[in-house]
Design brief:
124 residues, mainly alpha, 7 helices, 66% helix, globular, DUF3848 domain-containing protein
Length: 124
């Protein structure tokens, strides 16, 4: 899969994920929003950082396997950095960690349409 195609598909998925998160946040009471402040800030930060690509194509392609790649990347970002500002090397490390360990597949729902060919399904 070419990098531009990966970037386009991931950007579309990230946008859909972000919209879904926003719809859920709108339903929350003010105190619930305060409790989720770090998660909300990190979600927005990771979305803004990843939506235009610019990172290793292999890592971005790996994120396409998930129904909610924004959640996967956001949770790894919070685990490693909290909600601090993004630095390219920090995001590179978070993406590398997700793709290298591949343990996110145990905790997050995969998108069957985007699994590798060796698992009998076409790549996105």
């Amino acid at each position: 899969m070419e990098k531009k195609d990966i970037n386009m598909e991931l950007s579309e998925k990230l946008e859909a994920n972000y919209i879904s998160f926003m719809k859920e946040w709108i339903k929350l009471e003010p105190l619930q929003l305060i409790e989720k402040a770090e998660e909300i800030a990190a979600t927005k930060l990771v979305y803004e950082e990843l939506k235009n690509g610019g990172y290793d194509a292999e890592h971005l392609e790996y994120l396409l396997r998930f129904k909610n790649p924004l959640e996967v990347a956001r949770d790894k970002w919070i685990e490693e950095n909290g909600s601090k500002m993004v630095h390219d090397e920090d995001m590179d490390h978070a993406l590398w960690s997700i793709a290298d360990k591949q343990d996110a597949e145990l905790d997050y729902e995969l998108d069957e349409a985007c699994l590798p060919p060796e698992q009998g399904v076409r790549m996105c």
